[in-house]
Amino acid sequence: MKTTTSKKLLLTTFAALALLLPASAVTFDTATFGESLNGWRKNRTASYSIDNHSYLTHKPTVTPSPGGGIFISTRVEHRPTLGKKTTSYIELSYSDEGTLITAQIRMMAGDQQVNTGLITRQALAPAPLEGEPPVVNAEPWNTPTKVLIQDLFKSLDVEFAKVAKLDREEKKDVFSRVFGKGYQSADLAAAIRHNLNLVMRCTR
């Protein structure tokens, strides 16, 4: 009897918490994301290869954000035959309408860390005042979302360069030493971009 009562209380509590969370119009299609990476296995990961290098993507964690929208976090692992495993985290925040607001990439190999920091969507230009001519966008194809992604990977390149600079005096191949043998032929940024593009495609 006590067990049944406890379960009912727990379910009631979860239901109450769910009502407190803001409803979000934006959704993420986890199934389609997994299918694009060879499908989810029983351990909630997808295994695939890019340019003859093995990668593992973990099923994303999707949580509602305060005030609406969702936060998506997924882990991508590069597993070389020799050397250290590299673990990358892609973290994206979406508004309730499905607009990408912030993005961040964190990468770890052993005790070495690379972090783009939080990249935020640029603010829209203010509307022209009454009587003023409308502002013509010289680059209509360069949307705020594209700019955000460009800034994200520019930051990643900068962080990679910092890692290389730390070891320049020793004249060593820092990336092979930090990330493991065979790193040079593995384009980690391309693998991360591949996953990020798929996440964005599955977010509606």
What would you say this structure looks like, in words?
- The protein is of the alpha+beta class and 204 residues long.
- It has one domain.
- It has five helices and eight strands.
- Strands 1, 2, 3, 4, 5, 6, 7 and 8 form an eight-stranded antiparallel sheet that branches.
- A hairpin with a 7-residue loop joins strand 4 and strand 5.
Indicate the topology.
Layout (H helix, E strand, L loop, with lengths): L1 H19 L9 H6 L9 E6 L2 E6 L2 E4 L5 E9 L7 E9 L5 E10 L2 E4 L3 E2 L23 H23 L7 H6 L8 H14 L3
Antiparallel strand pairs: 1-2, 2-4, 3-4, 4-5, 5-6, 6-7, 6-8
What attributes characterize this protein structure?
204 residues, alpha+beta, eight-stranded antiparallel sheet, 25% strand
Report the count of strand segments. Answer: 8
Catalogue the unreliable spans: 181-185
Strand content: 15-25%
> What is the 3D shape?
globular
